[in-house]
Structure formats: structure tokens, C-alpha cells
């Protein structure tokens, strides 16, 4: 019995005496091909970046659809079977209805003896204009000091193309693709993935029925140099707090000092939510937060973290906490509350001595596992109503939760995490950081809940890539090595999946 268990463990660990970073002949050929064709791969990215596939602005919807069709054509060139699925109509705030871009469902390979990996990505981008402060044209890929600048380079056109180029390399070298691979690529992620959840629900017994692993490459590393695998994200609950004091704006000279002002009430309410150390003041908000485990503390110790580099990458001089454990736990394992803006207030240059009749404050709470959205909504509303009642204001208060996305956590011992670690070791010659992401990526939780499949986040972008910013980029090195690591992952997950399939038969030897 002990011998058989030890043999299974050995097989799961790799089961050979060679170095874990040693490359097979296939991998050497694959990596050499990718290095030799890197200029071609960069030109492919330039072509994709040139498409202004901004899903936020309705007048650019045709460009988003064009970008989806370009991606679909790239998959068809690989020999994939491609479907463009309609997801319906979007109604704009103006009442106008416009078509949503189609969603790509593609598959390559149907071998029942192979695992099936499904990759998710998106080809839409956030708005970008040169007058926003870009030093390069956002839709003209520009290489500076080994960095490829342009909108969508790291979020998410670069990673999507890296996956396609990894498969393309197998095809070019006539190497059998070791897995069945599926692609789900959309064009509305930056606008909230409208219509996608309904499509995934419809397809859970069809497109996803034979899927073993789902991989998402739509986030970044914690470091600028060290790869990472992501196993969790925080959720996000967005609130609005509206205070109304009258039917019209008032003159501060005529009535200032004799009425309860909406802006004063709102500022007091917003100020009551969080203290200067980032601690949320809403009673009960931390009751369901899971304590930091010893396993996570050990993971934190393994993460290479340069506080000076981190502050430089986010562009601030100081942060509230000084130690790795404090920083990571507050980013990943504890909720945070951020105030985002006030609607209805005068914000242009100069002075306007008006008392606004209605103002709306906007804030969000990034919640963590075990926090209940509906319970938190009640806690927030009850607390703000209590604070408001203490002001004895005659104004009208309305608190509402506009949107709620749940947190996501994966099992880092799932086979695809092990396969991804091996691939990273071979390409980058180091172990990855195992991290959570403080942001919210609802698609991960949605896939996990609906399909009941293993989900992994596998980023290739660095911490300083500046998604959504005027300096968005991906380094040439990360882009090319990303193609290699995705190709290596397909080989590794195939081997590991086969070992796991065979492992039960070893137990019968007992």
C-alpha cells in the first residue's frame, strides 16, 4: 500500500529524474519557432490594436463587431470550428436599442482521450484618445525600449493573441495539439459582459459539457518581473446615496444657513463610512470575513515583494501599511470601501454659489469570500439611515445598491494550477507567485458557478502594464514568453491529466 501511494505521488510530481526545467524536444522546437517568429506575432498584435473596439461608446459598436470577426477569422485559420452567437440587444440610457456584438464559441479537437481546455478572453477595450494624455497614438502599436504601447495590448488583446499564437505554433510545426481546446471570446467585457451570463447558462450542457478546465488571462502579475498565478478575486458592491433638499437649486446668499443642505448631509454620510486607516465603519461588516489561514501566510512569505517598486508602479509616495502580510491581507482577504464621486455637484473651474437641490454620492465595497451581498446591503442602508437621522435633517435620503458582483476563490491544488506552475518554471526559470487579485473579475465566479468546472486565472502582463491607463503596454518579452508558457501549459496539462486518469488503476494494485 505505501509503495503504491508513493508511486502515485511520484507520478503526479513528474515522475522522472531530469530537471523540472529541462525541455523536451517538442518544447525546444516550439520555443525556437516562437522566438524566430516574434516579429510576425508583434505585427499581428499591431493589427488588432489598430481596431478601435471600444465597447463603452455606442458609436463604435461596429468596430467591436469587426474586431470579434477578425478574432473569429484567426481561429478559423487554425482549423477551428467557429460559431458567432448572437446575445441580443442593448438598450442605452437614451432609450435607443443597439445590437450587441456576437460572442465567439470555437473548438479545435474532439478526442475523448484528451482533456478539454477552454480559454476565455475579450477583444473590446476601454476608451482611449490622444488628448487624454497618451504620449503615443493609442491605436498605433508603438515599441519603446522593449515595451509595446497601445490600447488593449495587455487588456486583453495581447493575451488572447498569445493563446492563438501558441496553438498556431503547434500547427505550423505539425505537432499534435495535446488537448482539445475551446475558445470563448467576447466583445463587451469592459461594458459589463452584457448577455454573456445568459449565453453561458444556455451552453452549460452543450459547449461546456466536455470542458475540464477553464483558463482566463485577463489580469496582471503582482511584480514587474516575476510571473504569477491568480487563485482569487474580491467581489464588488456599488452603492449610490442620494440626498434631496428641494425642487430646485437655491442661491446660497438667499437661503444659506436656514435650510438643511443636501451636499452637507451627503459629505457627512460619506465621511462616516471609512476611517483614515481604511477600516470600514459600518457595524457588522467584518463579521463573516474568514480569518487569514496559516497556509495563506506561508504563501505570502514566498512572494517576492518590493515595496518601493510597488509604490512606484501605482504612482504614490506612501501607502497605509508597511509589511507584506498587512498589504496582501488588506488587498485580498479583507473588504475595502472606496468613495468614487458626487453627481449633481458643481465641478467646473471657478465658483458657482449655488446650493444643489439633489446630490448623489457613489461608493463601492470590495467584499471577500463568506460575505453575503444581501446582508451587507442591509447593513449599509441601516447604518447610513442611522447616521442621517442623527443629523435631524428635513431632506430625503435614498440608499441603493446598484450592482453586486461576488468574490471568487479557486483551489490552488487543482491540476491546471500544477500544470501552469510547471510551464512557468520551464519558460521563466522560477516558481510563480500565488496571488489573489484585489479587483473584481465577475467572469471567473460566473464560470465557476454555472459550469461547475475548474477555473484558473493565468496572467502574462506585468504590474506596470497600466491597463485602462494612458500608458497601457505589454513588454515584448512578456508577450513572446506568454506564447511559450501557454504552449508549454497545453503540454503539461495533457500529461498531468493523463496521469490522474491512470492513477486510480494503480490503486487496484493494492
TrEMBL record:
Matching Gene3D superfamilies: 3.30.70.360, Zn peptidases
Free-text comment on the cofactor: Binds 2 manganese ions per subunit.
Domain of life: Eukaryota
Sites annotated Important for catalytic activity: 251
Residues involved in Mn(2+) 1 binding: 155, 190, 468
PROSITE patterns tied to this protein: ARGE_DAPE_CPG2_2
GO molecular function, one term: dipeptidase activity
Stored InterPro entries: ArgE/DapE_CS (IPR001261), CNDP/DUG1 (IPR017153), Cyt/Met_Dipeptidase (IPR051458), Peptidase_M20 (IPR002933), Peptidase_M20_dimer (IPR011650)
Short name of one Pfam family: M20_dimer
Residues holding Mn(2+) 2: 122, 155, 218
Residues at the active site: 124, 189 (proton acceptor)
Keywords: Carboxypeptidase, Hydrolase, Manganese, Metal-binding, Metalloprotease, Protease, Signal
CC cofactor: Mn(2+)
Family membership noted in the UniProt record: Belongs to the peptidase M20A family.
Name of the protein in its database record: Carnosine dipeptidase 1
Organism (species): Anolis carolinensis
Amino acid at each position: 500500500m505505501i509503495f503504491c501511494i508513493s508511486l502515485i505521488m511520484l507520478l503526479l510530481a513528474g515522475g522522472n529524474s531530469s530537471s523540472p526545467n529541462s525541455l523536451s524536444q517538442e518544447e525546444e522546437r516550439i520555443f525556437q519557432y516562437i522566438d524566430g517568429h516574434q516579429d510576425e506575432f508583434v505585427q499581428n498584435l499591431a493589427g488588432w490594436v489598430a481596431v478601435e473596439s471600444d465597447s463603452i461608446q455606442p458609436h463604435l459598436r461596429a468596430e467591436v463587431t469587426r474586431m470579434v470577426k477578425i478574432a473569429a477569422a484567426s481561429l478559423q485559420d487554425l482549423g477551428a470550428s467557429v460559431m458567432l452567437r448572437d446575445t441580443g440587444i442593448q438598450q442605452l440610457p437614451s432609450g435607443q436599442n443597439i445590437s450587441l456584438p456576437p460572442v465567439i464559441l470555437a473548438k479545435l479537437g474532439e478526442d475523448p482521450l484528451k482533456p478539454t481546455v477552454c480559454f476565455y478572453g475579450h477583444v473590446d477595450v476601454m476608451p482611449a484618445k490622444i488628448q487624454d494624455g497618451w504620449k503615443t497614438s493609442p491605436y498605433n502599436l508603438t515599441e519603446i525600449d522593449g515595451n509595446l504601447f497601445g490600447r488593449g495590448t495587455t487588456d486583453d488583446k495581447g493575451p488572447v493573441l498569445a493563446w492563438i499564437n501558441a496553438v498556431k505554433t503547434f500547427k505550423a510545426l505539425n505537432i499534435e495539439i495535446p488537448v482539445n481546446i475551446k475558445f470563448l471570446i467576447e466583445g463587451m467585457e469592459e461594458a459589463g459582459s452584457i448577455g454573456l451570463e445568459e449565453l453561458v447558462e444556455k451552453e452549460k450542457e452543450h459547449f461546456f459539457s466536455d470542458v475540464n478546465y477553464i483558463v482566463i488571462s485577463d489580469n496582471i502579475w503582482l511584480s514587474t518581473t516575476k510571473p504569477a498565478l491568480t487563485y482569487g478575486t474580491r467581489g464588488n458592491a456599488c452603492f449610490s446615496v442620494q440626498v434631496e433638499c428641494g425642487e430646485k437649486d437655491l442661491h446660497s446668499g438667499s437661503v444659506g444657513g436656514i435650510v438643511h443642505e443636501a451636499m452637507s448631509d451627503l459629505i457627512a454620510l460619506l465621511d462616516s463610512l471609512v476611517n483614515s486607516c481604511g477600516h470600514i465603519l459600518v457595524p457588522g461588516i467584518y463579521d463573516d470575513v474568514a480569518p487569514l489561514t496559516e497556509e495563506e501566510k506561508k504563501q505570502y512569505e514566498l512572494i517576492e515583494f518590493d515595496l518601493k517598486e510597488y509604490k512606484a508602479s501605482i504612482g504614490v509616495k506612501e501607502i497605509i501599511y508597511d509589511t507584506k502580510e498587512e498589504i496582501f491581507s488588506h488587498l485580498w482577504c479583507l473588504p475595502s470601501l472606496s468613495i468614487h464621486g458626487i453627481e449633481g455637484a458643481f465641478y467646473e473651474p471657478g465658483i458657482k454659489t449655488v446650493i444643489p437641490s439633489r446630490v448623489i454620492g457613489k461608493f463601492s465595497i470590495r467584499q471577500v469570500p463568506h460575505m453575503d451581498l444581501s446582508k451587507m446591503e442591509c447593513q449599509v442602508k441601516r447604518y447610513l439611515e442611522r447616521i442621517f437621522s442623527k443629523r435631524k435633517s428635513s431632506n430625503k435620503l435614498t440608499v441603493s445598491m446598484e450592482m453586486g458582483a461576488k468574490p471568487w476563490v479557486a483551489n490552488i491544488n487543482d491540476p491546471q494550477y500544477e500544470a501552469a506552475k510547471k510551464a512557468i518554471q520551464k519558460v521563466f526559470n522560477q516558481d510563480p507567485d500565488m496571488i489573489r487579485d484585489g479587483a473584481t473579475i465577475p467572469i471567473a465566479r460566473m464560470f465557476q458557478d454555472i459550469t461547475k468546472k475548474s477555473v484558473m486565472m493565468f496572467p502574462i502582463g506585468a504590474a506596470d502594464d497600466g491597463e485602462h491607463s494612458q500608458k497601457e503596454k505589454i513588454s515584448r518579452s512578456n508577450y513572446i514568453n506568454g506564447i511559450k508558457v501557454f504552449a508549454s501549459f497545453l503540454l503539461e496539462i495533457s500529461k498531468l491529466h493523463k496521469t490522474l486518469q491512470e492513477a486510480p488503476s494503480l490503486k487496484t494494485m493494492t
